[in-house]
Fold each of these.
Amino acid sequence: MTKPLRIAMIGYGFMGKAHSNAYRKLAHFFPELEHRPELTVLCARNREKAEEFARTWSYAEVETDWRKVVERDDIDAIDICSPNHTHVELAIAAAANGKWLMCEKPLAMNVEEAERMTQAVEEAGIPNMVWFNYRRVPAIALARQIVDEQRIGRPFHYRATYLQDWTIAEDVPQGGAALWRLDVDVAGSGVTGDLLAHSIDTAMWLNGPITRVVADTETFVKERMHQETGKMQPVGIDDACMFLARFANGSMGTFESTRYARGRKNFNTFELNGADGSVHFDLEDPQYIDFFEHTRPATGDKVEDHLTGWRRIHVTNFEHPYMDRWWVPGCTVGYEHTFIHALADFLKGVESGTPAQPDFRNALQTQRVCDAVLASARSRGWVDTGVESTQPVAAV
Ligand SMILES: NC(=O)c1ccc[n+]([C@@H]2O[C@H](COP(=O)([O-])OP(=O)(O)OC[C@H]3O[C@@H](n4cnc5c(N)ncnc54)[C@H](O)[C@@H]3O)[C@@H](O)[C@H]2O)c1
């Protein structure tokens, strides 16, 4: 038997589109799920633009005040796709009204907000999730499977980069609808919360908790015109961030992120090196995972021979994560599918009674690392993250 899941989505931008697509496709590719998303309300401040989006995606209604939306009896779940500074108030109000919550990353502007949000959803006892969608790239999920199968052995190194190139010109303004990511009061931070939050989530999912960090950040353009005031204002975000990390399992990590890497558009990569093998991933080539296996003979020392080398696995076979839902082997899926997978995992978690990860509490751990990174860049020393868990979280 199917149950309607009446959704109110807050925001119609990039993520509004990605999530609406996921709601529309879910039942076709995951028909066994009981819950059937219904696009009940689209909420955004600009009614005209919201109505245009609602028509395109067939939302039943438009609302411009999210406070009214979270109180409506005909809404089951709130999906937060608005800029970071709106997450805390929205989530706490939605939780107080018993709504399920699906929130975009980063969970919050800082740990203090993320703790209050986590407390709110836990006290309300409502299903909750954060859209760290890269865990749902089939190749990254396969990397997790490779780790779970203990094919990496004792981990030594984790290396992540997340590079883009879209804010280099000095005359790019900050703030306003399209450029809120450059305004620290709306975004909370620069690349740390926007890009490294993804890298940190993936890293802790694959390699366990990050316990301490030392970081450096740079703001290359110190002042930009603010679109809302029309005045030159100091830039408060980090344009670039590099940090060293220590993991609870004893391995070492390096993380680098910038919006100033000419030619890099969404260059999200990682590599994990262990005693028995390595995995490498690059989001600009997302259907592949590279795996190196250090062969282990029945007795004696490990050996390599003239055919030893990296294996490039095209992650499109039915036995690969999520791929039995899509096309025949060899046919790829893309970015938009990660949101469908995230939604399917979330609902499967609710229906089975084993909540999917990452939920708010799990995303709070990533927020702790982000805050520790920014604190370290200010203090110029190592900072303990205070991340709670001592084990990698469950796969789904
Ligand atoms: N998971 C991912 O890979 C990913 C990718 C991009 C963005 N995000 C996150 O998603 C969120 C939204 O980012 P985006 O790229 O979609 O932004 P966007 O600028 O494309 O869209 C933001 C939307 O929020 C609306 N909005 C702004 N303030 C609002 C308010 N006070 N009340 C109601 N609506 C409001 C805007 O009108 C717009 O529709 C951010 O938290 C961002 O970090 C996640």
Amino acid sequence: MAVFKQLDNAAAVAEQLGCADADAAMQLLGDEATLLHGLTALGWAAAGDYAVVRVAPVLSRFICGHEAPIRSFLHGETPLRDIYCALIVHLGDEGFELDPEQLLVTLRPHERVCHERLLEQLRQLPLRDVVHFLGFGLARGEYEQELADYLVANGLAGEVRLYGCDPYVDFSGSGIEEWTPSAAGEQQFDLILARWVLHHLEPAFRWQAFTPVARHLAPGGCLLILEEGDFRAADERRFADQLMALVLSSIDVINTLTFVAEWHEKSAESADAYYLQHLSADEIAVIESGFGFPFERQIIETGPGVFGQTIFAYRRLSR
Ligand SMILES: C[S@@+](CC[C@H](N)C(=O)[O-])C[C@H]1O[C@@H](n2cnc3c(N)ncnc32)[C@H](O)[C@@H]1O
């Protein structure tokens, strides 16, 4: 069973929070001060940070008010989906909102570390007059545009043509060309980026949605997947993995509600339409088996702290 040991952050979550088992976790997480300390110790933000100070009380109230299902989740019984859907509804009931600008201040250091690691990958791209760059699940594509500008400004490409594959976005007037694998013919991409997307695709469809896209990577091209989480195989799940999933999914829900508030009315219906499950090692293996070309893979961690992201960088070999 493939296990990416270097990505095993889950034990660190349990240790930092001082939780040895599900019962201890319930006691500690329900206490606002402990949760606040835990989120800081886990490397999310500095003590006194706006987002941590705002999030800790609402999360601890949520945990206290949903003790039975969360305890059951930590024991591996209730599915994660039940928990984050309940959190979305709870945030709506409390009228919880964060100021996106201030939340960005918290997230920016993590995001910039990822950004620097991604730029290192971009600098290794073979020089091309025209770079064909596909954003998979790119939303409005602002980040892809930033990378495209970087390529041109640094002489790594004469020109970048930007394509987008995201079924929930209307690209008209954006300068981004809509692309889907079914309509695509022989189009190949020198660069494909999927940033924070795959954990929002249901596992049963992840590779069906993604591998047909990855297959359009040009020889010598680079495919970058950026994900958060722990890539331990599902049948080895331990208490620490459950705790990790609880922490990461709560933060993911809060980020999404803050930055794309229009997608969520914090109701049961919108919770139902929201999907979140971090990738497992098995899924990475299945995704890779669908590429259909020889490749080199680098796994790049962007810590410190458990909120660090992981970058999977694939280079399609020319042979
Ligand atoms: C958390 S957002 C990340 C947005 C962007 N990549 C970024 O880094 O800011 C997840 C994105 O995945 C997109 N998405 C969801 N299902 C998808 C699918 N089947 N194919 C492509 N994109 C999808 C959503 O529309 C959304 O834009």
